[in-house]
Amino acid sequence: MYILQARRALRALKGLVRLQALVRGHNVRKQAQMTMRSMQALVRVQARVRARRLELAHEKLQRKTEEEDERRLPVDEDFMNPNNLLKSYKWDRRNQSSDNFKENASKKHDAVMKRERALAYAYAFQVCNTLH
Questions:
Q1: Can you give the C-alpha Rg of the chain in angstroms?
Q2: What is the pLDDT of residues 30-73, one digit of tens each?
Q3: Which of 5, 80, 99, 120 could lock 50 by a disulfide, CB 3.0 to 4.6 Å apart?
Q4: How far apart are CA 53 and CA 68, in angstroms?
Q5: Residues near 115 by Cβ (< 8 Å), separated by ≥ 6?
Q6: Residue 117 CA to chain centroid, in angstroms?
Q7: Residue 47, Cβ neighbours under 10 Å: how many?
Q8: C-alpha to C-alpha distances, 123 to 41, 43, 53, 94, nearest whole angstrom
Q9: What CA–CA distance (Å, rounded) separates 64 from 71?
Q10: What is the dihedral of CA 31, 36, 41, 45, to 10 degrees?
């Protein structure tokens, strides 16, 4: 008689353990899904911030090159005067060819973009390390 009750109790206990495992598994999956959603939201925000920073850097560099173009447009009359030979031999940024100027501007732009990407990567890596 006691053996039968013990078997029933053991079977009930096994059922209870299965039920607990099922509930815990569901809770763990639910928590993992919530964590994944928050991580995705964080990654989206970081991507927006990175894109905006790159956009701002690009605009800033464009404004700078436009300002340099505007500064180069007015030609100094003394500079073009053939009587003033010493000044005409003096190096001036205005003597750059447009190809050289565009090449230098392109190199500066690439350097700024690389720097921004490196900063964004470093920030993302730092955030990932703080989450773990």
A1: 34
A2: 999 999 999 999 999 988 998 898 888 888 888 888 887 777 65
A3: 120
A4: 22
A5: none
A6: 6
A7: 12
A8: 16, 12, 12, 39
A9: 10
A10: 130
Nearest to 88, CA basis, from 75, 98, 101: 75
10 Å Cβ neighbour count for 32? 10
Amino acid code (one letter) for 55 = E
Position 102 confidence tier, pLDDT thresholds 50, 70, 90: confident
Burial class of residue 55 (count of CB atoms within 10 Å of its CB; 0-12, 13-18, 19+): exposed
CA dihedral 54, 58, 64, 69 (to 10 degrees): 170
User: Could you give phi then psi for residue 105, rounded to 5 degrees?
Assistant: -65, -40
118 token code pair: 């490196």
Task: Determine contact, residues 78/87, Cβ cutoff 8 Å.
Answer: yes
Task: Decide if 120 contacts 50 (C-beta within 8 A).
Answer: yes
Q: DSSP of 24-69, one letter per residue?
A: HHHHHHHHHHHHHHHHHHHHHHHHHHHHHHHHHHHHHHHHHHHHHH
Q: How far apart are CA 131 and CA 15, in angstroms?
A: 38
